[in-house]
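Predict the structure of Hotdog fold thioesterase.
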Amino acid sequence: MNKPFSLDQLNGFGRQSMSDHLGIEFTEAGDDYIIARMPVDHRTHQPFGILHGGASVALAETLGSVASFLSLEDPEHQRAVGLEINANHIRSVRDGWVYGKVTPIHRGRTTHVWDIRITDEQQKLVCVSRITIAVLTV
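Done. Here is the predicted structure for Hotdog fold thioesterase.
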């Protein structure tokens, strides 16, 4: 990541947004990864009482978008916007927390590609996602 940041700053990004509504919290960050967690509860369930796939995708996109923002060379004149995301849902979760970890696949001048692995509290794989971010000049 190109910008120095704290967990408090990362958690501040999501205030008054979807990630705040879903209860997403950033918990750990390193030179080439960020980890966030999301509760599996009434906010993130689908009608049958398990984690909604869209909530997993929202966690993945939140992680990828923030990671790209922190990787921009010139954040005053660049924006990172989602271009494409996919997800494979591996296992269901009824309650507790899920954890997403984002790592870079490619950080180029005009696109970034990120891998996001979402696991449950027992570190079992729940979802695998990949997001492509467009880097725009504004």
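The mean pLDDT is 95.
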